[in-house]
Backbone:
Protein backbone atom coordinates (compact mmCIF):
# COMPACT_ATOMS: atom_id res chain seq x y z
CA UNK A 1 0.00 0.00 0.00
CA UNK A 2 2.91 2.36 0.61
CA UNK A 3 4.19 1.89 -2.93
CA UNK A 4 0.78 2.75 -4.33
CA UNK A 5 0.43 5.73 -2.06
CA UNK A 6 3.72 7.43 -2.96
CA UNK A 7 3.18 7.52 -6.76
CA UNK A 8 -0.26 8.93 -6.16
CA UNK A 9 1.20 11.75 -4.12
CA UNK A 10 3.85 12.37 -6.76
CA UNK A 11 1.19 12.39 -9.46
CA UNK A 12 -0.81 14.95 -7.53
CA UNK A 13 2.23 17.17 -7.16
CA UNK A 14 2.88 16.96 -10.92
CA UNK A 15 -0.71 17.95 -11.65
CA UNK A 16 -0.42 20.88 -9.22
CA UNK A 17 2.82 22.01 -10.85
CA UNK A 18 1.18 22.02 -14.28
CA UNK A 19 -1.74 24.11 -13.14
CA UNK A 20 0.14 27.35 -12.48
CA UNK A 21 -2.73 29.47 -13.74
CA UNK A 22 -5.07 27.99 -11.11
CA UNK A 23 -2.62 28.11 -8.24
CA UNK A 24 -4.08 31.28 -6.74
CA UNK A 25 -7.62 29.92 -6.74
CA UNK A 26 -6.44 26.67 -5.13
CA UNK A 27 -4.66 28.63 -2.40
CA UNK A 28 -7.83 30.61 -1.88
CA UNK A 29 -9.79 27.39 -1.68
CA UNK A 30 -7.39 25.94 0.90
CA UNK A 31 -7.68 29.12 2.93
CA UNK A 32 -11.48 29.05 2.83
CA UNK A 33 -11.43 25.38 3.89
CA UNK A 34 -9.18 26.21 6.81
CA UNK A 35 -11.41 29.16 7.70
CA UNK A 36 -14.50 26.95 7.67
CA UNK A 37 -12.74 24.33 9.79
CA UNK A 38 -11.62 27.04 12.22
CA UNK A 39 -15.18 28.35 12.38
CA UNK A 40 -16.61 24.88 12.99
CA UNK A 41 -14.13 24.18 15.78
CA UNK A 42 -14.99 27.43 17.56
CA UNK A 43 -18.72 26.91 17.05
CA UNK A 44 -18.46 23.41 18.53
CA UNK A 45 -16.46 24.71 21.51
CA UNK A 46 -18.91 27.60 21.98
CA UNK A 47 -22.05 25.49 22.13
CA UNK A 48 -20.49 22.48 23.86
CA UNK A 49 -19.28 24.76 26.67
CA UNK A 50 -22.80 26.18 26.93
CA UNK A 51 -24.15 22.65 27.13
CA UNK A 52 -21.74 21.74 29.94
CA UNK A 53 -22.72 24.93 31.77
CA UNK A 54 -26.40 24.04 31.52
CA UNK A 55 -25.68 20.48 32.65
CA UNK A 56 -24.06 21.81 35.83
CA UNK A 57 -27.00 24.12 36.52
CA UNK A 58 -26.59 24.55 40.27
CA UNK A 59 -22.91 25.53 40.22
CA UNK A 60 -23.40 27.73 37.17
CA UNK A 61 -26.40 29.56 38.64
CA UNK A 62 -24.67 30.17 41.96
CA UNK A 63 -21.57 31.54 40.23
CA UNK A 64 -23.61 33.78 37.94
CA UNK A 65 -25.69 35.12 40.85
CA UNK A 66 -22.57 36.07 42.82
CA UNK A 67 -21.01 37.75 39.80
CA UNK A 68 -24.27 39.52 38.92
CA UNK A 69 -24.52 41.04 42.39
CA UNK A 70 -20.91 42.23 42.22
CA UNK A 71 -21.37 43.79 38.78
CA UNK A 72 -24.72 45.35 39.68
CA UNK A 73 -23.13 47.06 42.70
CA UNK A 74 -20.65 48.81 40.43
CA UNK A 75 -23.35 49.68 37.87
CA UNK A 76 -25.71 50.93 40.56
CA UNK A 77 -23.09 53.24 42.02
CA UNK A 78 -22.25 54.47 38.53
CA UNK A 79 -25.91 55.31 37.88
CA UNK A 80 -26.13 57.01 41.27
CA UNK A 81 -23.31 59.37 40.30
CA UNK A 82 -24.78 59.93 36.82
CA UNK A 83 -28.13 60.87 38.32
CA UNK A 84 -26.46 63.10 40.91
CA UNK A 85 -24.82 64.99 38.06
CA UNK A 86 -28.28 65.97 36.84
CA UNK A 87 -28.51 68.12 39.92
CA UNK A 88 -25.49 70.07 38.70
CA UNK A 89 -26.89 70.60 35.20
CA UNK A 90 -28.75 73.67 36.44
CA UNK A 91 -25.84 74.80 38.56
CA UNK A 92 -25.50 78.07 36.71
CA UNK A 93 -29.03 78.94 37.80
CA UNK A 94 -28.32 77.77 41.33
CA UNK A 95 -25.08 79.73 41.33
CA UNK A 96 -26.93 82.97 40.79
CA UNK A 97 -26.13 86.21 42.52
CA UNK A 98 -29.03 87.60 44.53
CA UNK A 99 -29.04 91.39 44.88
CA UNK A 100 -31.39 92.56 47.65
CA UNK A 101 -32.23 96.19 47.00
CA UNK A 102 -32.93 98.82 49.63
CA UNK A 103 -36.50 99.08 50.79
CA UNK A 104 -36.91 102.59 49.40
CA UNK A 105 -35.86 101.59 45.84
CA UNK A 106 -38.78 101.76 43.41
CA UNK A 107 -39.56 99.24 40.70
CA UNK A 108 -38.56 101.76 38.02
CA UNK A 109 -35.13 102.24 39.63
CA UNK A 110 -34.73 98.48 39.98
CA UNK A 111 -35.55 98.05 36.26
CA UNK A 112 -32.95 100.65 35.29
CA UNK A 113 -30.37 98.92 37.46
CA UNK A 114 -31.23 95.53 35.91
CA UNK A 115 -30.90 96.94 32.38
CA UNK A 116 -27.49 98.33 33.28
CA UNK A 117 -26.36 95.00 34.70
CA UNK A 118 -27.47 93.21 31.51
CA UNK A 119 -24.94 95.28 29.56
CA UNK A 120 -22.10 93.65 31.53
CA UNK A 121 -20.43 91.03 29.23
CA UNK A 122 -19.93 88.66 32.15
CA UNK A 123 -23.66 88.49 32.90
CA UNK A 124 -25.90 86.00 31.17
CA UNK A 125 -29.33 87.07 32.44
CA UNK A 126 -31.04 89.22 35.04
CA UNK A 127 -34.45 88.55 36.57
CA UNK A 128 -36.44 91.03 38.64
CA UNK A 129 -38.48 89.69 41.54
CA UNK A 130 -40.88 92.35 42.72
CA UNK A 131 -42.04 92.73 46.30
CA UNK A 132 -45.43 91.21 45.40
CA UNK A 133 -43.83 88.20 43.68
CA UNK A 134 -41.47 87.63 46.59
CA UNK A 135 -44.35 87.77 49.05
CA UNK A 136 -46.42 85.32 47.00
CA UNK A 137 -43.55 82.83 46.75
CA UNK A 138 -42.89 83.13 50.47
CA UNK A 139 -46.55 82.41 51.24
CA UNK A 140 -46.56 79.33 48.99
CA UNK A 141 -43.34 77.70 50.13
CA UNK A 142 -42.73 78.88 53.69
CA UNK A 143 -45.89 77.51 55.29
CA UNK A 144 -46.48 80.84 57.05
CA UNK A 145 -49.09 82.18 54.65
CA UNK A 146 -51.61 83.15 57.32
CA UNK A 147 -48.98 84.93 59.39
CA UNK A 148 -47.82 86.91 56.36
CA UNK A 149 -51.36 88.06 55.64
CA UNK A 150 -51.57 89.52 59.12
CA UNK A 151 -48.73 91.96 58.34
CA UNK A 152 -49.75 95.51 57.48
CA UNK A 153 -46.76 96.10 55.17
CA UNK A 154 -44.81 93.90 52.81
CA UNK A 155 -41.38 93.54 54.48
CA UNK A 156 -39.68 91.89 51.49
CA UNK A 157 -37.44 93.93 49.17
CA UNK A 158 -37.08 93.86 45.41
CA UNK A 159 -34.55 91.22 44.40
CA UNK A 160 -32.43 91.01 41.26
CA UNK A 161 -31.33 87.49 40.34
CA UNK A 162 -28.15 87.72 38.26
CA UNK A 163 -26.91 84.64 36.41
CA UNK A 164 -23.23 84.99 35.44
CA UNK A 165 -21.65 83.40 32.38
CA UNK A 166 -19.29 80.41 32.77
CA UNK A 167 -19.94 80.48 36.48
CA UNK A 168 -18.38 77.10 37.15
CA UNK A 169 -15.11 77.89 35.41
CA UNK A 170 -14.55 81.43 36.58
CA UNK A 171 -15.26 81.42 40.29
CA UNK A 172 -12.81 84.22 41.06
CA UNK A 173 -14.42 86.45 38.42
CA UNK A 174 -17.83 85.90 40.00
CA UNK A 175 -16.56 87.02 43.38
CA UNK A 176 -15.17 90.16 41.72
CA UNK A 177 -18.55 90.69 40.05
CA UNK A 178 -20.32 90.44 43.42
CA UNK A 179 -18.00 93.08 44.88
CA UNK A 180 -18.80 95.41 41.97
CA UNK A 181 -22.53 94.94 42.53
CA UNK A 182 -22.16 95.82 46.20
CA UNK A 183 -20.86 99.24 45.17
CA UNK A 184 -24.20 100.14 43.58
CA UNK A 185 -26.21 102.57 45.72
CA UNK A 186 -29.47 100.66 45.24
CA UNK A 187 -28.03 97.36 46.53
CA UNK A 188 -28.45 96.69 50.21
CA UNK A 189 -27.01 93.15 50.24
CA UNK A 190 -25.47 90.78 47.68
CA UNK A 191 -25.42 87.01 48.23
CA UNK A 192 -23.45 84.27 46.51
CA UNK A 193 -22.88 80.85 48.06
CA UNK A 194 -19.59 79.90 46.35
CA UNK A 195 -18.66 77.48 49.12
CA UNK A 196 -21.72 75.35 48.34
CA UNK A 197 -20.78 75.25 44.65
CA UNK A 198 -17.18 74.24 45.39
CA UNK A 199 -18.26 71.54 47.82
CA UNK A 200 -20.73 70.10 45.34
CA UNK A 201 -18.10 70.00 42.61
CA UNK A 202 -15.61 68.23 44.90
CA UNK A 203 -18.26 65.73 45.96
CA UNK A 204 -18.97 64.85 42.33
CA UNK A 205 -15.24 64.46 41.61
CA UNK A 206 -14.79 62.19 44.64
CA UNK A 207 -17.81 60.14 43.52
CA UNK A 208 -16.30 59.68 40.04
CA UNK A 209 -13.01 58.46 41.52
CA UNK A 210 -14.95 56.14 43.84
CA UNK A 211 -16.81 54.67 40.85
CA UNK A 212 -13.49 53.89 39.15
CA UNK A 213 -11.99 52.31 42.28
CA UNK A 214 -15.10 50.26 42.98
CA UNK A 215 -15.21 49.14 39.35
CA UNK A 216 -11.59 47.98 39.51
CA UNK A 217 -12.14 46.05 42.75
CA UNK A 218 -15.29 44.35 41.51
CA UNK A 219 -13.60 43.56 38.17
CA UNK A 220 -10.88 41.77 40.11
CA UNK A 221 -13.59 39.90 42.00
CA UNK A 222 -15.14 38.80 38.70
CA UNK A 223 -11.73 37.61 37.48
CA UNK A 224 -11.02 35.57 40.62
CA UNK A 225 -14.50 34.04 40.88
CA UNK A 226 -14.54 33.06 37.21
CA UNK A 227 -11.01 31.73 37.44
CA UNK A 228 -11.86 29.61 40.46
CA UNK A 229 -14.90 28.17 38.67
CA UNK A 230 -12.77 27.23 35.65
CA UNK A 231 -10.10 25.76 37.94
CA UNK A 232 -12.66 23.42 39.49
CA UNK A 233 -13.87 22.33 36.06
CA UNK A 234 -10.28 21.71 34.96
CA UNK A 235 -9.74 19.37 37.89
CA UNK A 236 -12.91 17.42 37.10
CA UNK A 237 -11.77 17.00 33.46
CA UNK A 238 -8.08 16.43 34.21
CA UNK A 239 -7.98 12.88 32.82
CA UNK A 240 -9.72 14.00 29.63
CA UNK A 241 -7.14 16.78 29.17
CA UNK A 242 -4.19 14.43 29.79
CA UNK A 243 -5.45 11.97 27.18
CA UNK A 244 -6.05 14.76 24.68
CA UNK A 245 -2.51 16.06 25.19
CA UNK A 246 -1.03 12.58 24.78
CA UNK A 247 -2.68 12.15 21.39
CA UNK A 248 -1.28 15.48 20.21
CA UNK A 249 -3.84 18.13 21.19
CA UNK A 250 -2.36 21.61 21.37
CA UNK A 251 -2.80 23.99 24.29
CA UNK A 252 -5.07 26.13 22.14
CA UNK A 253 -7.34 23.19 21.42
CA UNK A 254 -7.47 22.20 25.10
CA UNK A 255 -8.11 25.67 26.49
CA UNK A 256 -10.69 26.75 23.88
CA UNK A 257 -13.81 25.24 25.56
CA UNK A 258 -12.76 26.64 28.93
CA UNK A 259 -12.38 30.13 27.46
CA UNK A 260 -15.87 29.88 26.03
CA UNK A 261 -17.16 28.71 29.39
CA UNK A 262 -15.66 31.85 30.92
CA UNK A 263 -17.30 33.89 28.16
CA UNK A 264 -20.73 32.42 28.89
CA UNK A 265 -20.33 32.99 32.62
CA UNK A 266 -19.34 36.64 32.06
CA UNK A 267 -22.07 37.16 29.46
CA UNK A 268 -24.90 35.80 31.60
CA UNK A 269 -23.56 37.66 34.63
CA UNK A 270 -23.57 40.95 32.71
CA UNK A 271 -27.11 40.42 31.43
CA UNK A 272 -28.33 39.44 34.90
CA UNK A 273 -26.64 42.49 36.43
CA UNK A 274 -28.41 44.72 33.91
CA UNK A 275 -31.77 43.24 34.91
CA UNK A 276 -30.98 43.70 38.61
CA UNK A 277 -30.01 47.35 38.16
CA UNK A 278 -32.99 48.07 35.90
CA UNK A 279 -35.44 46.53 38.38
CA UNK A 280 -33.90 48.55 41.21
CA UNK A 281 -34.22 51.76 39.18
CA UNK A 282 -37.85 50.97 38.31
CA UNK A 283 -38.63 50.46 42.01
CA UNK A 284 -37.00 53.81 42.88
CA UNK A 285 -38.42 55.72 39.89
CA UNK A 286 -41.83 56.64 41.27
CA UNK A 287 -40.73 57.65 44.82
CA UNK A 288 -37.86 59.77 43.45
CA UNK A 289 -40.09 61.56 40.96
CA UNK A 290 -42.68 62.24 43.67
CA UNK A 291 -39.94 63.76 45.81
CA UNK A 292 -38.80 65.80 42.83
CA UNK A 293 -42.30 67.18 42.32
CA UNK A 294 -42.42 68.34 45.92
CA UNK A 295 -39.39 70.54 45.18
CA UNK A 296 -40.84 71.73 41.84
CA UNK A 297 -38.04 69.98 40.00
CA UNK A 298 -38.10 68.12 36.68
CA UNK A 299 -35.62 65.50 37.91
CA UNK A 300 -36.04 62.04 36.34
CA UNK A 301 -34.06 58.92 37.07
CA UNK A 302 -31.56 58.10 34.36
CA UNK A 303 -31.37 54.44 33.31
CA UNK A 304 -28.54 52.70 31.50
CA UNK A 305 -28.45 53.62 27.81
CA UNK A 306 -27.88 51.28 24.88
CA UNK A 307 -24.13 51.85 24.64
CA UNK A 308 -23.71 51.64 28.41
CA UNK A 309 -25.57 48.31 28.41
CA UNK A 310 -23.48 47.06 25.51
CA UNK A 311 -20.27 48.13 27.29
CA UNK A 312 -21.42 46.35 30.47
CA UNK A 313 -22.03 43.04 28.70
CA UNK A 314 -18.81 43.28 26.67
CA UNK A 315 -16.76 44.10 29.76
CA UNK A 316 -18.23 41.30 31.86
CA UNK A 317 -17.75 38.80 29.01
CA UNK A 318 -14.16 39.94 28.51
CA UNK A 319 -13.42 39.61 32.22
CA UNK A 320 -14.79 36.07 32.14
CA UNK A 321 -12.55 35.15 29.20
CA UNK A 322 -9.46 36.77 30.76
CA UNK A 323 -10.01 35.06 34.12
CA UNK A 324 -10.44 31.70 32.37
CA UNK A 325 -7.37 32.20 30.17
CA UNK A 326 -5.08 32.99 33.12
CA UNK A 327 -6.21 29.97 35.14
CA UNK A 328 -6.09 27.56 32.19
CA UNK A 329 -2.58 28.65 31.23
CA UNK A 330 -1.32 28.21 34.78
CA UNK A 331 -3.01 24.83 35.20
CA UNK A 332 -1.68 23.47 31.90
CA UNK A 333 1.85 24.50 32.88
CA UNK A 334 1.47 22.66 36.19
CA UNK A 335 0.22 19.48 34.47
CA UNK A 336 3.38 19.31 32.30
CA UNK A 337 1.85 16.86 29.86
Residues:
Amino acid sequence: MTQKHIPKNNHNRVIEAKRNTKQTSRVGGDFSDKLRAYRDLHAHALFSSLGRLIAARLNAVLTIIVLSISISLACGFYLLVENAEQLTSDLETSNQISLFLRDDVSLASATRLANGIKLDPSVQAVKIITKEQALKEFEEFSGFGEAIKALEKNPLPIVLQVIPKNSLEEGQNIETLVENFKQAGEVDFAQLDMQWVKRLQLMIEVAHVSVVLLGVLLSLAVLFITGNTIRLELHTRKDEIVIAKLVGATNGFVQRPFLYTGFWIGFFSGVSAWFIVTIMMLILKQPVEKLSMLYNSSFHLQFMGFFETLALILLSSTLGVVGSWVVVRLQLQQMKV
About this structure: The chain is about 75% helix and 5% strand. The chain has two domains: 40-89+199-335, 96-192.
